[in-house]
Each structure stands twice: as structure tokens, then as C-alpha cells.
Design brief:
Elements (H helix, E strand, L loop, with lengths): L8 H10 L5 E4 L3 H12 L7 E4 L17 E3 L4 H48 L4 E5 L4 E4 L1 H7 L3 H4 L11 E2 L2 E2 L7 H8 L4 E7 L8 E12 L2 E11 L5 H11 L9 H18 L2 E9 L2 H8 L1 H19 L3 E3 L4 E9 L2 H15 L3 E3 L2 E3 L3 E8 L6 H17 L5 E3 L4 H20 L3 E10 L4 E12 L5 E2 L5 H6 L3 H23 L4 E5 L2 H4 L2 H14 L6 E6 H6 L1 H14 L2 E7 L6 H6 L4 E4 L1 H4 L6 H16 L3 E4 L5 H9 L4 E2 L10 H14 L7 H12 L1
Helix pairs in contact: 1-2, 9-10, 10-11, 15-17, 15-24, 24-25
Length: 694
């Protein structure tokens, strides 16, 4: 701060010309000079304030100088002068700062205007069609390329809604509102870049474009304030780009959605259903025993089967289906009233998938299992929904397959308990906790035991005896049945050979073979090796198969049965009459024995229908020269009825319960000693044998 003194008008004029004067102190004793000075000041654009002061304490100044003084101080002391100078200097500095900021803001605004103009020119020059929209979906900017593509000028596009020309497919529902579109749900809300294909059809134009659309959120301080959209006509894309996109979006084998594509559709469906308070479900489809198809026919046929399965699923549910790897598919069933709607859909799928498939001249039968869960009752999270559907699928497979199951609360706990049981079963196999029990098959006409059926049991270390229906399904669904079947077959053959060597006559041993293992080529090799190892005559071994096995896969079954027949091994149909067998099946397959199911035997003298079925089975078996065995015989009346019709070989609690190998040996030896004492009939003989064993 510099003090400039002027004693006359010329000095004052020179000081004002040099500028930066922030305050004029005028002496009342220099009024003539003051009048001329004020005239000079009045002509300035921003005149400084004028303070009139006096050192002699005189009265107010006289005369008409035509100027409103900012302040009059009479008299002016040194202290007052210091304060006033400081005050007015601060005011001067403040005004200069304001002026400088105003000037700088003008420069910034001018720069921003130039930058915006430059950016617009740059965006206008970009070859790619670009447009921008605000949070309401209204177009705020469009470049020349986009105008050319949409055949309109900027005035005809800016302010219009994007959904006027871009119908967005959102999980099967065409959007009618901006906030329902993928642009909004995925880009604005999720703040991520979205890339997908759309159909562009501008009103008034006959053209329709399949367009790749890249939507980028415009963020300001972390919040989305709009979107930038880049359009690219797919007709201009190279074939390599198209192929890559198909690989990413579609499963290359079945043509259904890839897992990543399905995940995106599921996430969009969750957002859509949450806003509109809708319910949807997921159906997890898994083929039953698909591995057997690969083992029997080869992986090429397995792939062809998957293509046919996918075609049937898509034919029923449309495109809302994805392959999750292997033989598993996931279906999105949208906008349902209740989960029962998905149960009806699952029933339709099971019926369709169970129809036979013709693959390279082979007829293949396969079934499926389905797990169902729903939103929002099961979960509101995509990963948890998929997990719950998978748990329900596992439950369906554990139930035997060809069924659907709903996810219920607590199923995860049940599956965890099942995992514990699985680990215990695995340890049981490794630690030889499995054991065999043998139930006699008796010829009631001669009173002799002609054979035994081998029945597997799990004898836990605590002494608990676990029946097969409690662990065989668990072993089958987890790939452990092969080891169990091999062990049962080996132990049964060894035991039978011991009995034959002891009693010196043929004894037959019957072993159940699961459907999952029967078509396995290794089974035939295992049977041949075991017969050689144990030196058991082939005609002393009977392999029992279920009726369902006969229709699952005709050709592999026929080949396996023929191979066993060529070795001399006998084949029996277990539980005959409960499944799908018919005269045509028995005529075309080398079957040696038919076992009448216990469900018919127990209703003898209770149901005329059961009696008629038994008579028909016995007549059919005789016509085809098949031997007969009746299961579940518990009363003398049942035994007598069966014997009167010609079914003399029977097994059941009337004769004996399943027993250990040693007890079976004792039974055979006692029978040899007491055979001549059987005057009272076979039942009396068996009663004596049981007394002897006890």
C-alpha cells in the first residue's frame, strides 16, 4: 500500500492516471482542488470512494461540489486514518478479487463452450452411430452417423424416447416402459457396460436392423446420469465376430443358451420380477444313467442324444433353456401363478423325454429327473436359486429317477445328512462291513433246497443291520454300485461252490444285478473271471434282472443276455408282472426263469385279480419253457395254491428267513440226513430243519 500526495489538480490528475487508487482523502481546506478532482473521478468507470476530512475540526464543508462523499470525518486523527486506510484497502482488495474471479470464470466458461463444441464436432465426426439418453430414456445427443442409420435428422431424434425404436427383449417379455428395459436395469442401476443384440425399427421406416448395441453408463460423482449408446449393424460384422458371439452365447453342442448367457437372463428376470411382484421357477433337468449310453454306444451317440433331448426341451419351453454341462439343463419358467404350474410342465417334459430315440439305427431309451425351485419363495438370489434347484434334482435322482421333486426348506440339511451316510457307506465298503444273507429256494414237491438268493446287508460296527433299500439307491447315485455288485457276485459264487463241494449235488445261487451295472461291458468279463476263479459251474449261477431293464435299452440288454446264455449262466426276471414285460419281450430275449412278485403272492385268496395274474404268468412261463420261482411265500395256503398251478419252487418266510453262509451250510447238511423223514410233506420237512438249526 502506497500513499500518494497531490497538492494541486495536475498532481492529482497524474496520480489518477497511473491507476490503482483505492481511496481519496480530501482536505476541506482544498475545496477548489477537490471540485476539479471529483470531476475527474466521476468520469472513471469504477471511481474510488472519497473520504472528506479535516485537521482543524471545522464544520461541514460549504459550497456545492456535486458529489456524495462516502464519509466525512471531522477532525481526522492518526488512529482514525490508520483504521480507515486498512478498511478501505481490504475493501479494494476484495473487489479486485471478485473482478478477477469474474474474469477467470468468463475464461473457463468460454473454454467449456469451446470444449463442448470441439467434443460435439469430434463425436459428429465418429463413424460409429452414437447417441446419448438421460435417466428417463430421452435422447439428448445423436451424431451424424446415427442420423443416417435411423434415416432422420437430429431434430427428429433429440427428445424422443429410445424405446420408440428399440424394443428390448427382457427374458421373454417385451418392454413397454424405459425402466423395464435392459438399458435401465443393467446399465443405469448396475452401472456396468452392457453389450447385446437388439432389433431397431424406426417409426415410419420400412427398414429393420439387427444391431449390436453397446451401452455405457455416464457417471458423475459415482452416480449414473445417463447412458451412451453405440449402434453397430450386424450385417457389417465380420464372420469371425459372429462366430465368436455364437460361441459365447450358445452351447456349441445343443444350441441352447450357454451357462454365462443363462446367468445374465436369470439376473434380469429377478430384477423384472421384483419390480412387478411376479413369481417364476427354475427347473433343473438331469438325464438318468446317461453314462450308460456313452459306455454302451460311445460318446458320439451320447452327443447326438443330448442334441435330441435339447430339441425336445426347446420344443416345449422355447428358448428359455440353457445347458449347464454334461447331461444337465436349466429352464426358466416365467410369470407363474404357483409352483404347481411348473409341476405340470415337469410332467410334460418327463413324458416327452422318455419317448424312445433313434440314433444311428439304435433305439435308445432314457429318462430324466427334474428339480424345481421358485422365486421368491425359495430365494431371491440367483446362485441360491440354482443351488436349491440342484438339491431338488439330487432328491429326484435319489428317488429312482423319472420323477420331479420340489425344493423344500431343510432339504440342504437332508442332503448334508445324506453326505454323512455316503461317507459311512464308503468306509463300510473299505472296511468289509457288508455281509451276505441267503434265503433258501425250496422245491415243495421234493422237499429239497435247490438254491439260495444272495441278499446284501450292511452290518455296522455298532451291530445295526441296514437293509439294502436304505443304502443301494445312495450307492447307485454316487457311482459306488459297481464295487458292491462285484463284491456280492464274488462272495456268492465262493459260498455256492463250498456248498456244492460239501453236499455233492448242484446248488444254484441267484444274484440281483442292478440296471445301472447290467449294461456295463465289464460285467460280462467279471462274471467269466469269477466262474473260472471259483470253479463254479456256469449253470449254477442265476443273474436276476428287473423288468424295467428289458425296455431301457433293447440292443445292449439283448447282447448282454445272449453273451451270458452262451457262457451257460442263467437269467431270471425279478418281480415279474409289476413292470413292462410282455410276451414279445420274453420271446426275443434268452430268459431262463421268471420270478413271481411277492405283491401278487400275498393277495392269494384275497384278490381274484392277483390270482388271475399268477395263473397267466405261470401259463406264459410254461409256454416259453421258463422255470418258475415264487417270492414272499408266508402261508401254507399260498404255497399250496402255487404248487397246484405248477409253481413248485418257492421262497419266503414260510420256509426260512435269510441266513448266514454257515447256517445255509447246516441247512443243506441237515436236509441230506433227514430227507427220508419228510413223509409229512415239504412244510413238515422244513419245520424239522429249522428246529435242527435252532
Amino acid at each position: 500500500m502506497l500513499l500518494v500526495c497531490a497538492s494541486n489538480l495536475d498532481e492529482a490528475r497524474q496520480a489518477l492516471a497511473e491507476g490503482n487508487i483505492f481511496l481519496l482523502l480530501a482536505d476541506t481546506e482544498q475545496m477548489s482542488v477537490l471540485e476539479g478532482l471529483l470531476a475527474l473521478v466521476s468520469r472513471q468507470a469504477a471511481p474510488p470512494p472519497v473520504v472528506l476530512c479535516s485537521n482543524n475540526g471545522s464544520e461541514q464543508p460549504t459550497g456545492n461540489i456535486g458529489w456524495p462523499f462516502d464519509e466525512v470525518i471531522l477532525p481526522l486523527t492518526s488512529k482514525q486514518l490508520e483504521i480507515k486506510l486498512s478498511l478501505y484497502y481490504s475493501l479494494f482488495q476484495y473487489e479486485r478479487s471478485i473482478e478477477r474471479l469474474r474474469f477467470e470464470n468468463q475464461l473457463v466458461e468460454e473454454g467449456e463452450r469451446r470444449l463442448k463444441n470441439d467434443n460435439k464436432l469430434l463425436l459428429q465426426a465418429v463413424a460409429e452411430p452414437l447417441l446419448a439418453a438421460d435417466l428417463e430414456g430421452r435422447i439428448t445427443f445423436v451424431n451424424n452417423s446415427a442420423c443416417q442409420m435411423l434415416m432422420s435428422d437430429s431434430d427428429g431424434l433429440i427428445g424422443r424416447l429410445m424405446i420408440d425404436f428399440i424394443p428390448v427383449d427382457l427374458a421373454g417379455n417385451y418392454a413397454s416402459k424405459w425402466r423395464d428395459t435392459c438399458f435401465y436395469t443393467d446399465c443405469v442401476l448396475a452401472k456396468v457396460v452392457v453389450d447385446f443384440e437388439i432389433a431397431v425399427h424406426w417409426h415410419g421406416s420400412e427398414r429393420c436392423w439387427r444391431t449390436e448395441c453397446l451401452v455405457t453408463p455416464m457417471l458423475h460423482e459415482g452416480e449414473c446420469v445417463g447412458v451412451v449408446v453405440t449402434l453397430h449393424e450386424l450385417a457389417e460384422k465380420s464372420s469371425a465376430e459372429k462366430k465368436l458371439r455364437r460361441i459365447l452365447e450358445k452351447d456349441p453342442l445343443t444350441g441352447t443358451m450357454s451357462r454365462s448367457a443363462f446367468d445374465r437372463v436369470l439376473s434380469s428376470q429377478i430384477q423384472f420380477s421384483a419390480r412387478h411382484h411376479q413369481q417364476f421357477s427354475l427347473l433343473f433337468v438331469g438325464l438318468d444313467r446317461f453314462k450308460q449310453v456313452n459306455d454302451s454306444f460311445g460318446h458320439e451317440c451320447g452327443d447326438l442324444l443330448l442334441e435330441l433331448v435339447a430339441g425336445r426341451i426347446v420344443g416345449i419351453v422355447g428358448e428359455n433353456c440353457g445347458r449347464f454341462g454334461g447331461d444337465e439343463f436349466v429352464i426358466l419358467h416365467g410369470n407363474i401363478d404357483s409352483i404347481a404350474d411348473s409341476g405340470e410342465l415337469a410332467s410334460l417334459l418327463l413324458l416327452s423325454l422318455a419317448e424312445p430315440y433313434i440314433i444311428k439305427g439304435n433305439t435308445v431309451y432314457i429318462s430324466a429327473s427334474i428339480g424345481i425351485t421358485d422365486y421368491p419363495n425359495s430365494s431371491r438370489d440367483s446362485s441360491e436359486l440354482l443351488n436349491n434347484a440342484g438339491l431338488a434334482l439330487s432328491q429326484a435322482k435319489s428317488s429312482g429317477g423319472n420323477v420331479y421333486r420340489y425344493y423344500v426348506s431343510g432339504l440342504q440339511h437332508h442332503m448334508a445328512e445324506e453326505l454323512v451316510q455316503l461317507n459311512l457307506l464308503r468306509s463300510a465298503i473299505e472296511n468289509n462291513e457288508l455281509t451276505l444273507r441267503y434265503q433258501p429256494q425250496v422245491d415243495v414237491l421234493t422237499g429239497r433246497v435247490v438254491g439260495f438268493e444272495a441278499l446284501v446287508r450292511w452290518l455296522r460296527c455298532d451291530g445295526t443291520l441296514v437293509m439294502p433299500d436304505q443304502f443301494i439307491p445312495l450307492a447307485e447315485s454316487n457311482g459306488m454300485l459297481k464295487a458292491i455288485d462285484r463284491w456280492v457276485l464274488e462272495q456268492a459264487c465262493i459260498a455256492c461252490q463250498r456248498w456244492i463241494e460239501r453236499v455233492r449235488r448242484p446248488i444254484r445261487i441267484s444274484v440281483n444285478i442292478s440296471a445301472a451295472e447290467f449294461g456295463r461291458p465289464q460285467l460280462l468279463k467279471d462274471v467269466s473271471e469269477l466262474l473260472q476263479l471259483t470253479e463254479l459251474p456256469a449253470n449254477c449261477l442265476t443273474l436276476e434282472v428287473t423288468e424295467r431293464l428289458l425296455i431301457d435299452k433293447h440292443l445292449p440288454v439283448r447282447e448282454a443276455l445272449q453273451s451270458l446264455h452262451n457262457q451257460g449262466v442263467l437269467v431270471a426276471i425279478d418281480d415279474f408282472g409289476t413292470g413292462y414285460s410282455s410276451l414279445s419281450y420274453l420271446q426275443s430275449l434268452p430268459v431262463d426263469e421268471v420270478k413271481i412278485d411277492r405283491s401278487f403272492v400275498k393277495n392269494i385268496y384275497r384278490s381274484s385279480r392277483s390270482e388271475h395274474i399268477i395263473k397267466s404268468i405261470i401259463s406264459l412261463a410254461k409256454d416259453l419253457d421258463c422255470s418258475l420261482v415264487a417270492e414272499g411265500v408266508e402261508t401254507e395256503q399260498q404255497s399250496g395254491f402255487l404248487a397246484s398251478l405248477g409253481c413248485g419252487v418257492q421262497q419266503g418266510y414260510l420256509f426260512n428267513r435269510p441266513m448266514s453262509e454257515e447256517q445255509a451250510m447246516a441247512l443243506l447238511c441237515s436236509e441230506r440226513v433227514r430227507a427220508k423223514c419228510a413223509g409229512g410233506g415239504a412244510v413238515d420237512l422244513i419245520a424239522m430243519l429249522n428246529d435242527n438249526l435252532n
